[in-house]
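Budget justification, computational time. The allocation requested in the original proposal was used primarily to generate structure tokens for proteins on the priority list. As evidence of use, we reproduce two of the resulting records. The first is shown immediately below.
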Amino acid sequence: MGDNTVEATDHNFTEIVGSDTPTLVDFWAEWCGPCKMMNGPLEELAGENSDKLTVAKLNVDENQQTAMNFEVMSIPTMIIFQDGVEKKRLVGARSKAQLEQELAEFV
């Protein structure tokens, strides 16, 4: 994890996404090249928007139950939650500019 992101697990997932602050959860795996490409942009977004957005990372290999619960079929998948409810789903790598555009309504 980076300095600005939090680690989501099967055990703390409900607590992390239950906030009224929008939470972007990045479903990723260590072996996934496109997932690694997202680390920099997500870390930057988390730092720049720390007062308006929580960015969490969930390793699908280590937390299979949560990934199955949300039917994550390919990674990277990023899901935006607010008050524990899925608001938006993004599948595939994106640039920082694309992420900012996709997240504009939440930050």
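The second record produced under the same allocation is shown here.
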Amino acid sequence: MVSAINVPAGRLVSNAVVDGAPSASEVEHGGALLLNSATDDALGYASDPRVREAAFAAIRRQSLETPASGRLVAELQERLAAWLSVEACALLPHPGVLFDAVRPTHVDRRLVVREGYAGIPLADADELSAGDEPRRLWIEAAHPLEGDLAPLHRYVERASSPRTELFVLDPLGLGVLGATGGGVLDHFQVDRPDVVRLLFLGTALTTPTWVVAGPRELVDGLARLGPLTWPTASIAGATKALELCAQEPHRRVRLLDLAERLQGALAELGADTGPAVTQVVPLWLGEETLAQRWLTTLAEAGIAARAWLEPGRARLLLTPSATLSDAQLDRVIAGLAQCAKKCGLPELPQRSSAPAVARPGTFAVARACGPWWTQAPVVERPSASPRPPSPTAELRTRLGEAVEGLTWRVANTRIPNIKDVVDPALIRAVLDRVRRR
């Protein structure tokens, strides 16, 4: 899952149907082995033998059909709460569950553009004036289609009122960003135990599930919104991946190294990678037909890739895995260079700034880039051609003026009976003419 939200204007497409995944950096397609440049498994734990064995062991204990026990789910939630330093955690199948339960009064600009939830969009944190904070502030902290981060620390500083409920959506950061892998809040070193976080487990912990983390009173109420049962293998695998993620911080370092190197290689090719500072490295292509040609050329070069297709805003979405070797990354870069030479790149007035990633201690938010990345597309509507005046409308206007003038005369000359001024037959004739028109 690349996007945490449903974007009606576009769609995510791939150039390969995955038949198998022997590792996070390779996929099987039609009997061939392709390099995977667009993985959802950022740290490579989904195909890790230790995680797979933990999942198989849980299945042997409870069988494949039996859902995960309450004890197994509770253990994962308790470990997540300890890792994130919050009071409680609860698993949810999708962020839409929380969206429907907790409607924000204000939301981050990027979320309004894509989802259209009711709320007042904020273009900048400075719009939150002191003493006038909203009751609920919902922020999409990481942007999956651009790879940048919202200036979360500024929103937190502004929304300091005790009556403000702060909700943070983080689809990219868990296990990847911050000194301990706690996500975007960890990256910005925000210490607010009252902040409610919604994080995607699939980025690092192998399972396409979400977790809501925050104060126990609120989380316990939201826990009832999730399903009563969870797949045993999924929960057991995520628990083991969580354990490994805490023990192996070098995978986070490796992932950001690969993303930064990929940004630099694409910059040398003349590509525009937008404001990205996370493991998501987008490549602006603009037209959907050009994006389709890039996907076809990459498939011919033995590289599995994905693209976001949206009218006038198409882009390639490159998401490497921490398990990708230097030699494999060289092959991916060579394939991208072949695409740039064969298919071409769009002419743009400016490119992204120098490569940079959100390493711990940098407080990186985004790189300088063109406005086409973050602004909503302007839809030009054809101006309506002036319609010729309707004869009926003109006649109605003249009739109204005549009646108004007649009424004024009657009122001012104090004639007791209007029939003494105008023949009723004449009025009926005019009205019949209007009806026929």
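A brief technical remark on that second record: The chain has three domains: 11-42+250-343, 49-247, 392-436.
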